[in-house]
Each structure stands twice: as structure tokens, then as C-alpha cells.
Amino acid sequence: MSRRLGAAVVAIATLAGCSSNGQPQDELMVSDNPVAATAAHSPAPATTPAGTVRPLAAASAAIVDDRSRTLVVAVDNPPGLRLYQLDALDREPRTVDLATAAESLALAAEGGPLLAATGKTVVRVDLASAEVTPATVDGTAANAAAYRDSTLVAVRDRKSVAVLEGTGTRTITGGLLSADQVYAVGDRAAVLDRLRNAVFELDVAKGTVGEGLRAGQGATNGTVDRFGRILVTDTRGGALLAFSLDPLLMRQRYPVPGGPFAIAFDPRRDLAWVTLTETNEVVGFDVAGEQPEQRYRFPTVGQPNSVAVDPASGRVVVASANGGGVQVIEP
Length: 331
Description:
Number of helices: 0
InterPro entries: Host-pathogen_enzymatic-act, WD40/YVTN_repeat-like_dom_sf
CATH topology: Methylamine Dehydrogenase, Chain H
Organism: Actinokineospora alba
Helix content: under 10%
Oligomer: single chain
Number of strands: 28
CATH superfamily: YVTN repeat-like/Quinoprotein amine dehydrogenase
Strand content: over 45%
Strand order of the largest sheet: 1-28-27-26
Distance between the termini: 25 Å
Structural class: mainly beta
Protein name: DNA-binding beta-propeller fold protein YncE
């Protein structure tokens, strides 16, 4: 696959370090009081959602595990998880109760366990038994990712990344205003800072935050593709961004109007599925070439803040954040 550095890269400056008072020195900051980008508010759906829709309360996250054939959807009220049999979605899901709604879901490995970031806890869920094992962190767990034999946790209010290793915990700090998502890419790792609006390298072994690059005008979510890139939605800027970590570079910037927000990657078809909350749509982009190419576009449920994909069948799952249900699309 071509990895040519596009013209967009020359406009991206490497972010500076910290000042003597511990605050990042960032000439590209547009405000002394930055506000993190969030999903654009959706209008009432004007078109019937594609595929089938199952009723469900407001959802905050969704993920598919191919090996166990499980779809997991996090719901807000009451807080919990719904575990669906992916090949029999008409059956009632298993339920896992949580003390606090999960902001994000991730897989520690194929087949699980599931990692649910909820409040001050990362909950590990066995997908076969639905057994829950909590791990407490010092702060608000926003997101988690498996990294080698450990778990990285974005701790938003502490502006840090916790490293859970066996029974111990280390903390990585430095230069962050907020830690919102973490990504493991082979032996490398990165963190998305929504307030500083940048992707930063992490040296997990040394426990340091490395160089960072601006992530558009207001990045919100990201995922890792099979080419070792981090695909990020620039919600404010209306774009899909692609970053490499070896070295840290913005490889692509592709305009995506409509408030791009949630993102999931299909590794068998090289499709990045992105929800557009301004228009209640989900779009599938082929990202194997020099720039993304749109392959699919479907109308969705209202406020489509979550998306997941089944690599085996190519089915796309979109979950509504305002109680519009769970939608399953067969492209």
C-alpha cells in the first residue's frame, strides 16, 4: 500500500512541550479555555433507516467480537451492557449490570475479554460467561486498550494514561490537557487529547508522552486499521484523518461533511465506517488506497453516536444515543 505523505502534512506542526507551570506550550491553541468537540445534534430522521432496527434505550458504545460471535452494546439507563448473539439478533440479549454507564468498549483480544470504561473503573467482561472483573483507576476512565501484557487506560480528568500491569498500576503524564482515547499499534501506542485536539505518541516502557500532532479542528474518535494507522474523525473540521506512528505523521486528510463522529474498521474489506450525526447517516470508505473512497452511504437511526462492524459478514451495526434503537445494515 502506498504511504505517500500528502500535502496536508506540511500544514501540521509538531506540538511543543510544557511550560514551567506544567501547562502545554502550544502556539496552535485557538483558546486559553478549549472545549472538547462532541457529536453534532441530530435532526429527527427524515428517511427510514436502512436494514433492520431493534428497540433499545439510549446507547453509548457498541463493539463486535468476531470469534465469539457477540455484539455488545452499552446502554445508559439503567447503566449496563447488552450481549447479543450476532448470528441470532432476534433473540433477547444477555444483560450485564454496571454501576455507571460505559463510555467506551474495547476488546483485550479476539474472543475477549471485553474492556468497558465506566466511571473510575475498567470492567473486564468474559464474553462466554458474562462474568465481570473490575479494576479501579485514580480518575475517570474514558477508554481502554490492550497493550502487550498490560491495559492502557485514558484517564480524562487526571490528564494521564494509566498502565494496568498485573496487580500494579503505573501512570504516564506530561503535556496533556485531557486523555480521551488510547490506541495500541503493534509495539507502539498513542493517546488522543480532545481538549488539546491532538494525537500524542506514548513511550509506555519509559512512561512518557512523546511528540504530538494537531488532529484537525475538533477530533473525537479513532480506531486502528490493519495498515498500522490511527483513523480519526475530525468532527468540527468535517474530515477523516489518518496518522502513522512510525514516524508520527498525518498521512491523509479527507473531507467528510455532516459531522463525522463514530468510527469502526472492517479489516477484511478495508472499510472505515463513519457515522454522520448531522445527517443521520453512516458512510463506508475504502481506505486501502492513497485517499479514502466512498463505497456506501445509508440512512441511520437518530443520533448515531456508535458504530461497529462484523468482519465475517460485513454487517454494520449503528446504535442510537437518544433511544432510537440498534440498527443492523447488510451492505
